[in-house]
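#dry-run=false #mode=assembly
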Amino acid sequence: MSKLLTRRYFDQIKAMLGKEPEKPREISPAAQKIHFYKKNNRDEIAELKHRRAHEKPSHTWRNRRWATLIFANLLFVFSYWLDIQVLEGALTASRFVGFHMADLNSALQVMLAHKHIITNLLIGTATVLLLWALLGGRTFCSWVCPYHLVAEWAEKIHLYLAKKKLVSDQPIDRRLRTVFWIVFAALAVVTGYTVFEAISPTGILSRALIYGAGLSLLWVLALLVFEVFFSRRAWCRYACPIGLTYGVVGIISPVRIKYRLEGCFHEGDCRKVCLVPHVLDTVIKGRAVEPEVPLGPDCTRCGLCVDACPTGSLSFDIKGLSRLL
Amino acid sequence: MSDKENAPAPAAPAKGKAPVSRERARQGRRKALRTILLTGGVLGAGLSGYLPLVYARTSRLRPPGALDEKEFLQSCIKCGQCVQVCPVNAIRLADLTDGFGVGTPYIDAREQACDFSCDAVQCILACPTGSLTYDKPDFLPVRAGAALPQKPTLIAKMNDPEPTLNMTERMGVARLTRPESCLAMKGEGFKGQARGPGFKGRMRYVKVDRWKPIQVADHPYDVPLCDLCMRECPIAGAISLEKFTGPDGSTRARPIVHENCVGCGVCEMICPTEPASIAIVPREVWKS
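#status=ok
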């Protein structure tokens, strides 16, 4: 990893904690050359724009992801309903064919509140930590979390209403999520209750799917209403401590989205569909520090940008693997 | 620079007219306000979980092996694995009205008691966090009277090499809460379905099927003097009937709960009077 990418790597961790990304102070000669070349190639960009206008939008990754998300949640549901016992429990803690799994954030809350850890919980936490460290950290959010899916649907309503000028997105300070993470951790320690677990829409939805609906769905509904009429994807973007927990796991993950400067013509479609556009700051004209830049740990690896990118400049990448192949 | 650019321009507040800096400052203030709004909303919702605890509305009967209430709420990860293993579906998950207890397991004994059909307290085995546990960690004290005198003997397993249940503390204690309505106390018998034809509760009747619980409604009774609570109690020596003669000379009986009672709630479920004459007091300890 070059010096510039290393600097960016740490900048992206700061961005995950809420810092707004800044213009890079230094750009590598190789990237500078591409930036310069593009400046003088307006014809090519015009041609690309024209071609793109005739392209059908692709939903490949979104469909794969939705299928995975629904499958994972149905596996929970059917393990209980049909008694197939593959994945018993709920998203907060479960057993996959007998192996303990514990949601990292839930497990953390329990450990902080109870101040006593039993072996099973430790095993479950370690398994899940390893799993998501391999698969990309916040991959959990977009590929498994049921709230992510309903929020994605609510987002469609929000975007439709926004297009009709009926609502507008009200951004909120992204540092809030870090504050919430600390506050809820502190609340667990001080009150001795897993306060966040009582309002976690992930847990509430997962249990509602498996064990039946309850009044707590009203809280989930309230969040969705807030997102539709007030602030786009507010919970996932500005509030959810689970996202930050898995984001931290994603720091060391080899699975990520890689950006290639060469073909990109900076039209910004990827940033329009992205849940966490600050990870895509590198696609803004003149920002990429190297010809190839991996996205930061806050990226949920949802693949919407990969689908949206008309030039194939964004793609899934496994660190080290591409070099091997 | 980043997110704002993508926002579909909120009502386009006359770009260019006002100086950018002032507009920026206004946006900044609004963003701060919205941030405070979301902070308040989320924290308010989170801490509202205290309300039901402050008012102490309900004391829940927890599944076997549960830690004391405070520790139970600390350690339960709300996954429902205990719900999944229960053969009679006695365990349910609490809703929003339980505050911080949302998603935690409880037993509504009148609707479906824990009758130990599983033979081995499966729910404890299923618990990933030790909220339900065979052995309490050393730093957690056992309340006086909460400990069982010995491991409870399961009547259904009486002939097995290991007839006991791995439980050290009780869930609660059964109490004859309405002696005036108790059929035995009135010297009356009982004939028919204990809880009527519509009752969905299930129980294991060893004489019918050692392994499969059946509906209580499918197992009618005909007894000259009601003894259903004692008859169906799954634990050896937990409840007995003390005969006495009523003022009219009839033979009557008084249900006596003994120290062996674990608080499973079968007596409460099976009691044919409405409401039940005998009920579990959750979390209650034994007082001699």
